[in-house]
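An instance noted here:
***
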Amino acid sequence: MLLKIRGKLDSIFVTILLGILIAAFAIWGVGTGGGAVGGSNVAKVGDKEVSAQRFATMVNNQAQQYQAQMGGQMTLNQIIHGFGLIQQILQQQTTMAAFDNETSSLGMRASDSHVAEELISIPAFLLPDGSFSEQMLEQTMRSTGMTRNELLEEIRAGIARQQLVDSLTAYSAVSKDMVNTLQVVQGERRRANMITIKASEIVDIPEADEETLRSYYEANKSNYMTPVRRSYRYLLVTPDQFADKVEISDEDIQTAYDSNIGDWQKPELRNIQQAIFPTAEEAQAFADAVNAGADYATEAAQRTEFTIDELDLGDNTYDDLAVDFDAATADAVFAVAEGTITEPLETLAGYVVYKVTSITPGTERSLEDVRDDVVTLLKAERSVDLMFDFIPELEDALAEDGTLAPVAEKLSLNLATVSAVDRNGRDANGTQVITQQVEATIHAAAFAAEVGLEPEITDLNPVDNTQGIYLVEVMNEMQPEQQIYEDVSVAVRQAWEREQRQLKAGEFADLAVERLRANENPEDVAADLGGTSFDAKNVTRQPDGNSGLAANIRSLIFTIGEGKVSSERSADGDGYVVVKVNEIVPGDPATQAAAVASLRQQLINEQTNTVLSQYQAYLLAQNRPEINNALIEQLFPRDQE
């Protein structure tokens, strides 16, 4: 229910703050070419500029939303760079600027009266009775950091952009006849008999002699090469390596406990329900009925627009309610007993009656209870700090020596060596020597690097630089070599047998095709040939979520005609699938109204996206965005902590 209330606010501000066109253009990229724009703007398209303040606010707001969703596990800077938010917001803003520039050049500008009409119709600013609320407008502007003039100009620009988009997409070439014709094909359903013949289950194959196997080896020599192998060295630096150097005093422990008190002391939770009424009289009548014995949820569902499920706001702390609503609401909810209701409260959304359905008492753990946990937390944090302090020393040593051996000796680091290992982490004997996740990360980097290239400091985790760093140095690469028959004779025999089973499965599939064409019973055919028969009923062109039919077999079913038989190799390569189409039922637009409407909207959307994409490309070609990369780097430096 809370989402329903908040949704009104969110939806309009997605439209206003991100622009009417962002949904359409989110998948289109904007390059960072063109000239450089200076001053306090991060970008310029024609005469329209993207201010640094506005850009930074949008990037930070988006990052804060992600951070809250992830429980604060990543810093804002890690989210901004790891999630590519700078480029995303830049694309959005330059696209909007391109369209704003075009609307200005065309003289398209919304009148003051049009802006006023739009403003007073925004759901986020309306009371339950539909009247405009100045108080809700002011509250929203404070929460978004916008001034009244900025909001009005956003609305004005949004109206002009929408008018431009409407003029481009008003005409639709998607006719009713076109949609109906396509639905006949798109909505078609088929029924087919299928026989699967698995090669792996075939046992009756000839025994290969030595001459046959050697001939097979000679014909497939390229399959029996040693893999590319590399030898490399690496240095790994993690916070754990500095844990022994961390010194922690009792004062440090007390400070850390106080700073993280929320981890040790859990506030009381109250599970609540919420019923909203447009008038005080209706709210009081509801409260009287509940106090007289009526069921809260049933009564609320009957008297309001909300369902029983939407009444539930879940568990909330006092602070949750104070932030989401106000202190008066929090006071009222936390003043009543479990199973009882509050008096009607006047709010921006209307008159509200809350019920406390359950109470979870808060918990408090003393410093002595959690002392070991606090020490562990402090050690982890300070180990990270010591690691970061060490990195400049490592950089200096690397710049001086250029290779890892002298760096390791100078800084007393462990230099690990991996010798003659293939891309999958196996040595020449086939033993898996790369077994840990950290090793796998470094191993992948070793196979991506150039031989002899000077090592670089690299984060173990690209989105969390607190996990550690590594440097890898590729010493040599061993090219593939031909393996002699004696070393691979077992693998040769296995490959030859697999091929024979597959050939036999193909022969059985051909026999099954002939017999089904002769209208023999599919179950009898399958039983004779060692296959499995089943009916595929009501097969559609597009798979649904429960379909286990392989794409190539579905394609075969819709390729051959009614009464026809054909076969296709199994999607997993293990044998063949034989298909006989028994029935074709064309799509019926008259009885598939929802599908027709969906198809029509899909075609319109594709047409609209094509038109807008081409027009956007035209606008950005006419006025290529000028990006102030230096200013963006100042706003969001990569090494910022």
Notes: The chain has four domains: 2-171+606-635, 189-225+486-585, 229-241+378-478, 268-361. Confidence is low (pLDDT under 50) at residues 1-38. Residues 367-401 form the longest helix (35 residues). The chain has 24 helices and 17 strands.
